[in-house]
Amino acid sequence: MKQTAPANVLIVEDDRDISHLVELHLRDAGYNVDIAYDGADGLERALTKAYDLAILDLNLPGVEGLEICRRLRAKPSYPLILMLTARSSELDRVLGLEIGADDYLIKPFGIRELLARVKALLRRMEARSTSSDLCPEEEKVIRGGPLVIDADKRQVTLSGQDVNLTAKEFDLLFLLACHPARVYTRAQLLDLVWGMGYEGYEHTVNSHINRLRSKIEKNSAHPHYLLTAWGVGYKFASRDTWGDN
User: Fold this and answer.
1) Which secondary-structure segment (H or E) carries 40?
2) Class of 8-127 in CATH
3) How far apart are CA 46 and CA 40, in angstroms?
4) Cα Rg of the chain (Å, integer)
5) Extended beta strands in the chain, E state
6) Which Pfam families does this one have (predicted)?
7) Domain residue spans in the chain?
8) Can you give the pLDDT at residue 200?
9) pTM of whole model > 0.85?
């Protein structure tokens, strides 16, 4: 039976007591763990080494956690991000999720809950190791007029020009394009793309759709591909309209 390599986890947390406690329990659970005590070191480590998961405090010296999250999400390949925050306001949580965090925990938190979140995130990553898992069809390259979505390369081009998408933007676009004319609710998209039901944070989907429209539509106010199903959610245009743009 094939052995799965232990996941590589980066902890970016300036509170050394919390860092060492989390490290101890993660190592006991079988993970490889590195620690950074400030944002600059954490960002450098995350950009230079392949991690499966980053446990990231928001309030860091040097470079704040939200900026680290933003920088990582601009890369084609990046780790899962579990945010740790003492900030309890909904605005901070929504902002973190919109930037691209996969989950969050509010301090103080229990170690058992953190380990459960870590395991759930890593299981989801393993179960859906490629974006093609979002699409049950054999088709790996989707062509919609001038828009081309390549699942294996995780690349999108528009009229031959590369479109720079974050990983979550790509996954969202690919899922919708795989099922043209099918309407998804925001809750369904959160569950399928983000992997968890972020109840109360459906605005995250709206923000990603708006950014996608700004990148692939000629006129984002009158979209050709990414359509709104009013009162329900979103859908990708039906195939018979793809060549009209």
Assistant:
1) helix 39-48
2) alpha beta
3) 10
4) 19
5) 8-12, 32-36, 53-57, 80-85, 103-106, 141-144, 147-150, 155-158, 161-163, 184-185, 226-229, 233-236
6) Response_reg, Trans_reg_C
7) 8-127, 132-244
8) 47
9) no
**C-alpha distances in angstroms, 41 versus 10, 65, 68?**
11, 12, 10
Checking if the pLDDT of 199 tops 60, the result is no
What average pLDDT does range 227-239 have in this prediction?
91
User: What band does 2 get if pLDDT is binned at 50, 70 and 90?
Assistant: very low
CA angle 105, 109, 113 (to 5 degrees): 80
Average pLDDT over residues 217-231: 92
> Helix crossing, 39-48 with 65-73: angle to 10°?
20
Q: What are 146's two structure tokens?
A: 């001038």
Tokens of 201: 């944070």
CATH class given for the domain over 132-244: mainly alpha
Handedness of CA 97, 99, 102, 104 (dihedral sign): negative
SS3 content of the chain, % helix, strand, coil (to 5): 40, 20, 35
The pLDDT of residue 28 is above 90: yes
